[in-house]
Amino acid sequence: MASIVSDAASSKVIVGVDTHKHIHVAVAINQHGTRLGDRAVSADSGGYAQLEAWAQELGQLDRFGVEGTGSYGAGLSGYLRRCGHRVVEQTPGRPPQPSQQRQVRRHRR
């Protein structure tokens, strides 16, 4: 008889973290892009532990995408790496500035 594995146990979890000076905000998705939840924690060792424990509850952790691994996210990145997790730098996408848009239009003429 085949056993049925729960979705949480078989789901690969990716956690993206927006880091700030006093608080970090995380969003977790599965490998299909389905949002699993979000969490805000304090930017200190207690908050890092809460974030990791929350993420572990969601399924098999694949990686953490952390914004600002060299600044506000440095402490969290180090903590997660020491716990054995894969951490990648997450660079937020920024739309082109108005001056850049004008330059592109000018070159199309």
Task: Describe what you observe in this structure.
With 109 residues, the protein is of the alpha/beta class. The chain has a 5-stranded mixed sheet with strand order 3-2-1-4-5. A hairpin with a 3-residue loop joins strand 1 and strand 2.
> Count the strands?
5
Order of helices and strands: HEEEHEHEH
Count of helical segments? 4
What integer is the average pLDDT? 85
User: Low-confidence spans: pLDDT under 50, at least 5 residues?
Assistant: 1-6
Give the biggest sheet.
Answer: 5 strands, mixed
Quick structural gist:
35% of the residues lie in helices and 31% in strands. The protein has helices at residues 7-10, 45-58, 74-82, 98-108; strands at residues 12-19, 23-30, 35-42, 60-66, 87-89.
Labels describing this entry:
single chain, 109 residues, alpha/beta, 5-stranded mixed beta sheet, disordered N terminus
Give the secondary structure arrangement, pairings included.
Layout: H1 7-10, E1 12-19, E2 23-30, E3 35-42, H2 45-58, E4 60-66, H3 74-82, E5 87-89, H4 98-108
Parallel strand pairs: 1-4, 4-5
Antiparallel strand pairs: 1-2, 2-3
Helix pairs in contact: 2-3
